[in-house]
Amino acid sequence: MQSRVVSLEEGKDPAVSIKASQSKSSPIRLLQLFLLFLAICISFSIISMYTIKRSGVQTAGTAVKSAFKHCFDEPNTLDRWIRRPSNLLHKMSDEELFWRASFVPRIKKYPFKRVPKIAFMFLTKGPLPLAPLWEKFLKGHEGLYSVYIHSMPTFEAKFPPSSVFHRRQIPSQISEWGKMSMCDAERRLLANALLDILNERAFDDHGPYGRGRYNENMAPEVNITNWRKGSQWFEINRKLAVNIVEDTTFYPKFEEFCKPHCYVDEHYFPTMLTIRTAPLLANRTLTWVDWSRGGAHPATFGRADIKEEFFKKVHEDMHCIYNNQSTSICFLFARKFAPSALEPLLHISRNVLGF
Ligand SMILES: *[C@@H]1O[C@H](CO)[C@@H](O)[C@H](O)[C@H]1NC(C)=O
Ligand SMILES: *[C@@H]1O[C@H](CO)[C@@H](O)[C@H](O)[C@H]1NC(C)=O
Ligand SMILES: *[C@@H]1O[C@H](CO)[C@@H](O)[C@H](O)[C@H]1NC(C)=O
Questions:
Q1: Is the pTM for the entire model greater than 0.90?
Q2: What sign does the CA torsion over 181, 182, 185, 186 have?
Q3: Which of 15-29, 100-114, 283-297 has the highest mean pLDDT?
């Protein structure tokens, strides 16, 4: 590199000295200086081009960039706005979190390659007995999913770094069955998932009687014709998740009037979404569940139930509508399974579930 610079300057030198010998008057002197300057410029650009080709400058550039990153930690690029939170344990209050999660881009086309992900949200007291089955299900699909866990605040998860559940707990608070605190927990899960712009769909996994629970004090915001019941097991897209997180209209009504035997967690989301976004609702579940035994709780299946015949029964006679098309795949999930079902499920999953 050095030698090339020298030879180029030498190459230009004769021209300069020839002109210099022609005359010593000042216009010529100016021209002389100008030519010298031109020569230096040309040499400089050749040096630059040469160095860039050898990628020396590029590496230097990156080094400088990362040094800047250390200094300010916020490079002023698009990356700053699409980077997923590196630590789920943020210090935002619910109010701050919901506000931040309600940010929505208005331009539909993303100016970067966005691979949409499914957010799997687990609302649990703590342990996840079927975790190994989820691990098996998600294995090999890295980059297409994200996992969020809302647990008891005191629960300390001990998932190894290789686990899909490792460090996936969000800041949690105590939530009680049938109370608004349960809805709060679900909104918290959704809001945290919304912070990652790549999450497009959310599935809420939750460890579950009708219009009689409606309270007229909820009118006019909520009236009996829109009263709906659902379960905490739902699948929604980003748009509906934002609807839930941003709601300040229906929340106070449900908080005040849907208690104590109203089971607000079964009514708030489905009723609110029916009022706000009815045409977007599928009005059915994706989670298979067996209520045939009667009573307030669905059947729980354990070790002895997990046989191929069981899954034949689950899959038979299925017809439902998906995107206005008839399909035989109606359920993507099923419940309820006791911890004792784990081992046979891990054995049988490849044959009956395809993973
Ligand atoms: C409830 O809402 C529906 C549609 O929004 C309306 O037609 C109906 O009159 C309302 N009923 C009451 C009791 O307000
Ligand atoms: C679900 O019900 C709502 C009204 O409650 C309706 O607007 C919507 O089209 C229904 N969805 C489907 C897929 O039928
Ligand atoms: C659904 O399908 C029916 C019959 O094929 C059609 O009449 C209707 O317009 C479709 N609805 C939508 C929303 O595509």
A1: no
A2: negative
A3: 100-114
